[in-house]
Every structure is written in structure tokens, then in C-alpha cells.
């Protein structure tokens, strides 16, 4: 994780170095969330591009210098295997976070889906094939292709009932006894919070703050990205230009 206090203090130092303005905590928090999401979202198209290079054997595969694996490594903090629960009201499998500590609560992508079927004296563990609702309907209606406990089938859909907080819903056939899924979660919202000091100053409060969930290698990208938007807020084109040039150079260095 990247310390949000370190990033904020660095941003303030750069802005104040030549008296270029001040970024209040509330505005910093908004920019921090924006930039973290931008970096997080970039992992997916970058991963696809690097994977194509990996498949064509045109990139370095040395243990510590594989660009594809390095990009994949950055997603590890957001990857969790979670149990889904069966909702008898809506006849579906879903993940409903109970606490804010449940990996942020919002699932971005589904990975491997494991279904467990308990029978007297034996247990069957099967990988569920995820398909579209249209294909699911076609496959389940045919006796020749109907899903079995060894080859279950599922489709994902949205549950729009007003009294639910489910963000991922699955229909699985045949109905399993337990379901666990490897998921990529959205990052939690970063926040720099403070407590008033004896002189009325703002003192960093780590107990109520949230650090960035990104890998420590992203610290400079976070600082540069926040400075770029801060330059827009305080109407300083110099900061925007410098931050944009630094961001471009970092991307070149990472992908070259």
C-alpha cells in the first residue's frame, strides 16, 4: 500500500515550494480517488496488450523482469476468493458485503467459479462455465447439452430490487451446495483525514484515514497524477505541463 499522508505531504511540498497554491484535504481526497481509479483501470487494457506480447514470445521472461507478470502482480491486492450465498428470495447466488472491510465490497471481475456438490458419502468439486443468458437458456433446454454436477453452467445478471445491495448475481445449474469465486475487487476509497491540533492546525489522523491500495511502485504515478489535476484546480498551467511530462516519461520507462 502507498501511504496517503506521504503522498499528500509531497503534493503540498511541491505546490508550496514556489508558492503555487494550496490543496485542501477535501479536494485532495477527491483527486486521490480519481487518480487511483485511473491507475487501477489502466491495468486491464495494459494487461491485455502485454499478454498478447507474452503469447507471441516477444517480451522478456526473466524472473524479475517480466513486464506482464509485473503488471499482474499489481492486481494481487485486489484479488480475493470469496464465498457466495444462496438467496432463496431471488433464487440466485450473490456476494453481499457485511462490513466495509470486506475487500471494499464492490466486485470488478469474476475469475474461476468453484461449485461444490455434496452427496451421501462423496463430494464433487466442479469449475462452473460462465456464459451469456441466451446461451444458458439454449444449453439448459437441450437434453444432450444440459449441465451436470461435473459440468455446471452459470450466467451473470443484475438484481435491481430496491431492498438489496448485491452487485454480482449468478444463476447456476445444477444448484450447488456451496460456491466460491476468485474475484477482482474495486479499490477502497482513499482518504486523508485529520484531527484539530492545539493551535487549530490540521493533524493527520491515521485511525480514520485510508491509504491507497495500489502497490508501492505506483507512488510517483499517484503524486504526478494528483499534481496534474491540482494544476487545473488552482489554474496553474506550469504544474499541469510538468506533471504531464513526468507522467509520460514514467509510462515510457515502464513499457519500454
How would you portray this structure in words?
There is one protein chain. With 256 residues, the chain is α+β, with helices and mostly antiparallel strands. The chain has 2 domains: 4-73 and 214-255, no CATH class; 79-185, no CATH class. Helices cover 37% and strands 23% of the residues. It is built from 6 helices and 10 strands; from the N terminus they run H-H-H-E-E-E-E-E-H-E-E-E-E-E-H-H. It has helices at 4-17, 25-55, 67-73, 133-141, 219-233, 237-255, and strands spanning 79-87, 92-94, 107-119, 122-127, 129-131, 153-157, 169-173, 178-185, 194-196, 202-204. The strands form 2 sheets. An 8-stranded mixed β-sheet has the order 4-3-8-1-2-7-6-5, covered by helices on one side. Strands 9-10 form a two-stranded antiparallel sheet. The longest helix has 31 residues, at 25-55. The relative contact order is 0.20.
Topology (elements, then pairings):
Elements: H1 4-17, H2 25-55, H3 67-73, E1 79-87, E2 92-94, E3 107-119, E4 122-127, E5 129-131, H4 133-141, E6 153-157, E7 169-173, E8 178-185, E9 194-196, E10 202-204, H5 219-233, H6 237-255
Parallel strand pairs: 5-6
Antiparallel strand pairs: 1-2, 1-8, 2-7, 3-4, 3-8, 6-7, 9-10
